[in-house]
């Protein structure tokens, strides 16, 4: 996903917070940043296999929250 796609999909996030979060996720090896040397420069982000293992856990937490938090 590209930066602006991420920004549009996360309601209310600031540029500073999104950039910081992406750097942290990359540092923790949960995200890979691909930079293409084009004009203008194109950057895409991809979940790592390590991160993808968290998806079922996060979906369970989401389900629990929807059931138990009104």
How are the elements arranged and paired?
Elements (H helix, E strand, L loop, with lengths): L2 H7 L5 H13 L3 E6 L5 E6 L1 H4 L2 H14 L2
Antiparallel strand pairs: 1-2
Summed up:
By secondary structure, the chain is of the alpha+beta class. The protein is about 55% helix and about 15% strand.
Structural notes for this entry:
The chain is of the alpha+beta class and 70 residues long. Helices cover 54% and strands 17% of the residues. The protein has a two-stranded antiparallel sheet.
Features:
alpha+beta, 2 strands, 4 helices, 70 residues, globular
The count of DSSP E runs of length 2 or more, i.e. the number of strands, is 2
pLDDT average, as an integer? 95
Largest sheet: 2 strands, antiparallel
Q: Measured on Cα atoms, how large is the radius of gyration?
A: 15 Å
Q: What portion of the residues fall into strands of 2 or more residues? A: 15-25%
Helix amount, in percent? 40-55%
Bulk shape = globular
Enumerate the spans where pLDDT stays under 50 for 5 or more consecutive residues: none
Summing up helix and strand content along with how strands pair, one would put the structural category as alpha+beta
Major beta sheet, strand line-up: 1-2
Individual helix count = 4
What's the SSE pattern? HHEEHH
């Amino acid at each position: 996903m590209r930066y602006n796609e991420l920004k549009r999909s996360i309601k209310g996030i600031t540029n500073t917070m999104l950039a910081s979060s992406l750097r942290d996720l990359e540092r923790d090896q949960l995200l890979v940043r691909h930079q293409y040397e084009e004009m203008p420069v194109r950057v895409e982000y991809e979940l790592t296999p390590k991160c993808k293992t968290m998806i079922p856990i996060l979906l369970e937490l989401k389900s629990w929250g929807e059931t138990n938090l009104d």
